[in-house]
Write a structure and sequence with these properties.
201 residues; Immunoglobulin-like; 2 domains; four-stranded antiparallel beta sheet; 14 strands; 10% helix
């Protein structure tokens, strides 16, 4: 009975630590960019807040309103948006956190014969363990890797490898990263791009 209570205490402590570590700052992240069809929007709230999310063109015209002054709980959110209705060009995605602050990101609408939207690409990427403590293993199902980028939730590039890697499996030492969520974006030799989210303990 005492042992059971001990393990319950440890589990609650770890859950509390994980929750505090994952919600560090209000953030906005989107991919792919440029986008052809399907746009994935991620944002993080550190506190309960009223949130507005809109897309504007370069003239300032609101071309799509997701929601306005919507009360949301502190959490990590993901929204899928079909960008087929947008004309090719530059747009701005704006996320308002109450009346205190906003985050704005540029997004380009682009479709051509050489463009591959990540939504249409077969998933060839496996990243583990997740959460990771130090060594992150990357498997690409037999396809060579051209570029690897690791970004934080704000889109800041933390790590970048440009040299082509022929190995199907590789490892990266991430022991120097602080605890939190990150995105790993891998461009394969067939020009497809795969993106995964992982947590660094």
């Amino acid at each position: 009975m005492i042992l059971k209570k001990y393990f319950l205490f440890i589990a609650l402590l770890l859950a509390s630590t994980f929750t505090q570590a994952q919600i560090i700052t209000d953030s906005l992240f989107l991919l792919p960019n440029p986008v052809c069809s399907q746009l994935t929007i991620h944002y993080n709230l550190i506190n309960n807040d009223t949130v507005s999310l809109n897309i504007f063109d370069v003239s300032g015209k609101n071309v799509h309103a997701f929601f306005s002054n919507k009360l949301q709980a502190a959490a990590f959110y993901t929204i899928q948006y079909n960008a087929d209705s947008l004309k090719p060009g530059l747009y701005f995605l704006r996320l308002d956190f109450g009346s205190e602050h906003s985050k704005i990101m540029k997004v380009a609408k682009e479709c051509d014969a050489n463009y591959l939207d990540t939504a249409t690409v077969v998933n060839k990427l496996n990243v583990y363990p997740n959460p990771v403590q130090s060594k992150l293993t990357i498997e690409t199902a037999g396809t060579a890797t051209k570029q690897i980028e690791i970004t934080d939730l704000n889109g800041k590039v933390i790590e970048k490898l440009n040299s082509e890697i022929q190995n199907e499996t590789m490892t990266m030492d991430l022991s120097h990263l602080i605890s939190g969520f990150y995105f790993i974006s891998i461009q394969l030799s067939d020009e497809s791009i795969q993106v995964k989210k992982f947590f660094k303990e």
